[in-house]
Description:
Helix content is about 35%, strand content about 15%. The chain has 11 helices and 9 strands. It has helices at about 30-35, 35-45, 70-75, 75-90, 125-140, 155-170, 200-210, 220-225, 245-250, 270-275, 300-305, and strands at about 1-5, 10, 20-25, 50-55, 95-100, 145, 190-195, 235-240, 275-285. A 7-stranded mixed β-sheet has the order 5-4-3-6-7-9-8, with helices on both faces. The protein has a two-stranded antiparallel sheet with strand order 1-2. The radius of gyration is 19 Å and the shape is globular. Mean pLDDT is about 95; it is low at about 1-15.
Amino acid sequence: MSEVIDGTTLARPSGGNEPLRLMAVHAHPDDESSKGAATMARYVAEGVEVLVVTCTGGERGDILNPAMDRPEVKADIGRVRNEEMARAREILGVQQRWLGFVDSGFPEGDPLPPLPEGCFALEPLESATAPLVRAVREFRPHVMLTYDEKGGYPHPDHVKTYEISAEAFDAAGDPDRYPDEGEPWQPLKLYYHMTFNQERILALHTAMLDAGLESPYHDWMQRFDERPQLWDVTTRVPCADHFETRDRALLAHATQIDPNGFWFVVPLDVQREAWPTEDYHLARSLVDTELPEDDLFAGIREKVCL
């Protein structure tokens, strides 16, 4: 069966009880656990099929946990991060797929050094997008999650992840584009992660001070003044019951996450009370929905779960 929405032919289920499917596209292993992890865990618990697509292996990532800063770990960082990703996806209950690109690293200096040859950020758009289009057509997500055009923060791999996600969202349903990458499938909604939005950070900052605790967010207030938020939050997904699962997935990325570091300063009970959602901006939708939303599948459930 098929359905035409806004001139686009969408694949439709042939019968009822079609499972909802969510695809989250991320740059590196650990990004899936720091952005939207509790959302994914909630939907998995509800029976939604969730696929994390990881664009690179994180081979050029720094070791951010002093306990893991050892020569044997540095020497085999790609394998170690692969194993960390395997543990995290098991904790979250998600499927996961590697696109196989090479981490670009985070260039620092003035002027910035050139990116390393052959890295993900330097891949031509079409060759970088092709394997993601294939993943979309094989998994057939109804909803895609990615970063905004600034990457959420200016890591070249995050910016590239946005570029291929936007391109794949537009191209996957078109039989004339990427014709060698499988049967067309058109996702219905595309969201940007808004994990560190200003309203949430301010709420957590205030909650910590009200609890008589030291807030880790003092410097963030000035950053928001200097760099205004690009996008409004349109969608807040209640998922506080899954914050603990999110934290266990974060800890699985032991090279990247210090158990005594920033991620765990705000107690879970404070987080659940002050801000019990994970937040998103609805960037594209081919279905009708009313904003604000509290469900990534708003406007889709009625069409799919017949």
